[in-house]
Every structure is written in structure tokens, then in C-alpha cells.
Amino acid sequence: MMDPARLDPARFDPDAFLRDHWQRRPLVLRNPWTGWSNPLPADELAGLACEAEVESRLVTGAAGAWRMESGPLPEHRFAELTGAPWTLLVQAVDQHVPEVAALIAAFRFIPDWRIDDVMVSYATAGGGVGPHFDQYDVFLIQGAGRRRWQLGGRCDDGTPLLPHPDLRLLADFGVEEEWLLEPGDILYIPPGIAHDGVALDDECMTYSIGFRAPSRAELIEGWTDHLLDALGDDAREDDRYADPGLPRQDNPGEITPDALARLQSMATAALLDAEGFARWFGQHSTRPKYPDIDWRPERELAADDIRAAIAAGAPLVRNPAARMSFIRQGGTDLLLFVNGTCLPCTGSAATLAERLCAAGGEPVRPGTVDDAALSLLLALVNDGAAGFDAD
Ligand code: SIN
Ligand code: CO
Known about the structure:
This protein has about 400 residues and is an alpha+beta fold.
């Protein structure tokens, strides 16, 4: 793989970006890379859209008459696309193409758990998906060709949409700014800002580094489901409201403040368990986006295989599809979360886990490993979260 493209510190200051733009206002960066080249040929993108385990969409037509088809697309579909402009959008290309995953490294001034995936689009001249807004922050990197972006105001759930079976298109799009993006240029758009990108050339490719932010409803649902599952395990039928020493009430019809306070604390005590929440969130946020794809190695590796790989100097490389984060546990201990599982790490395993998390997509050489580090490596490799690079 070629060296990943990097943002030139002389042309992009992440601290200033976080202070002035992140989640606040759009920004156009004129080719801030140390060297930009389009990381994915268009025909490979089309190939991905034909694969069953890859999420893709094809939007055909232009202003006012867009049609959407969901992938996987039959190969012959591309030959039929003549005349009218079209856009092909492929989700999570970073999971399948290391050169696309490498783009994420440039945006790691944002924590990994906030990063969703890299969507790649290919459009012919005039192609676009229509004016819309997204719920999430996005960096739109112009990979090849040119695209004209128009930005409008802030939208929310109340913003009127056009009736459309598949696309969330804005009923009114008031253009406030316009930018023409050339290869290497980046447009950052915070959540909720109306936007519309139209390809000016055939072979227009855009890489969207997309972020995620859990909604309040998703957090409450996930955390309470988790708590209920845990309660269900040791079914405490006897874990009930109790009121020994109950004082007599003037009016038996009243539910007293005392009773309510006890009831509410029964319901909320478990919800306020900060340690339990941390563990749940680590697992929740690292769950694989496409759990049906099995990345495990064909043959399960044994400790001796790991020792041999290390002795041969093979670097450990993360599977770009693996989600990995950690939470400190006081001292040097930590909980490592990998694809929805929690691996408690101490000593050398904790040091290795931190190195792996810091490295992102960069290879790591584990060095001499003791039993703790070895069992962490075994777990990661046999889960398909990482592998030793044989070359
Ligand atoms: C595109 O890449 O064509 C569209 C991306 C977006 O507007 O979110
Ligand atoms: Co968008």
C-alpha cells in the first residue's frame, strides 16, 4: 500500500478546526494534503456495488426526478446507464479497501468511536442525490473530477421534505453559499446543514468521512435493554418495593412523596451505575456495523503461531472493519472493546492494547510478549480484528 495521504499541518490546524468549525459551521479546505491521489479506481467501486455484503445505492436522473435503487447491483446495470446522469454510492468502503481506510487516519483528531465509515460516490456529469441534510458531521473529500456544492441553512425534524419513497429531499432549498471542489479539496458540513452536490464531470468521485452520534432515545433504549437483560439473568422476583414501618396516611388515596421517592430510586439506581454504563457503551459502540460479515481466519491460530509470527518480525495490522476503543480503569488497567466484546487488560496486555488503539490502521510490532499480551493477541487474531502481515 502507498503511504496514506496526510493533512499538511501548514494548511490545516485541527485545534482551530475543533474550536471554530466542528459541529458549528461548514468549512472548505483547498487541497490541504501533503500529496493527493484518488485512492480507488471507479471500476473497483462499481465492483463493490455488485457484492452482496456491501451496502450500495444507485441514484439516477437529475433535479426533480431522482430514482433510487438499492444494491447489490447486477453487473449489466452499469452498461444500461446511458444518457441521464447517475450517482453510485457505496457505504463503508473503508472496511473493504485499505487505501480508503487509510483516509481516516487524517481525521483522527476526532475520537475513533465517533467515526462511522467512509462512503464513496461516483457520479457522471449532472449527477447528485438532491438537496438534503444529514444527521451527522461529514468531511466530503473530492477524490477525482469536480463537484459544485451548494449549502443552505440549518434543518431539523420539522423541515419540510418532498414526498419521495426512498430519498429525504428538501422541499425548499435556499442556497446561501456555493463552492466548486476540485480533487483533494475538502468540505466539512456539520449536522443539519442543507447541502446539494452536483457533479460537473463524468468520473466525479467523492469520499465522505461520516461520523455518528447516538441519539438520546438510542442510548436510553440500549442501556435499559441491557439492564433488563442483566436483571432477567438472575430473575429477582423478590426484588420489590418494600415499606416496613409504613406510617398511616390521612388519605389512603394519596401516593405520598415518600413512596414516590422510594419507587423512583428503585427504578433509577441501576440506571445511574456509571461503571456498568461505561462497560455497556464500550461494547455497544464497537459493535460491527455489518455483523453478518465473518472476518475470522480460516484456521484458528494457536499461541505458537503468534510467537512464530512475532519472531519472524511480522507486524500486526488491524482489520479496517474492526471497531476498537478502550476505557481506563484507574492505574494502568483498562477495558479494551473490540467488535462488541469487552477484554479486561492489565500489565503488558494493557500496554499493547493502548498501542494498538493509538496506532489505528498503522502496523504495530508487539516485541517480546508475556502470557497476558499473548492471550490478548490470540483473542484479537482469532476474532479477525487483527492479523499478522506475512509480507
Ligand atoms: C455524494 O457523495 O454524492 C453525496 C454525499 C452527501 O451529500 O452526503
Ligand atoms: Co449529505
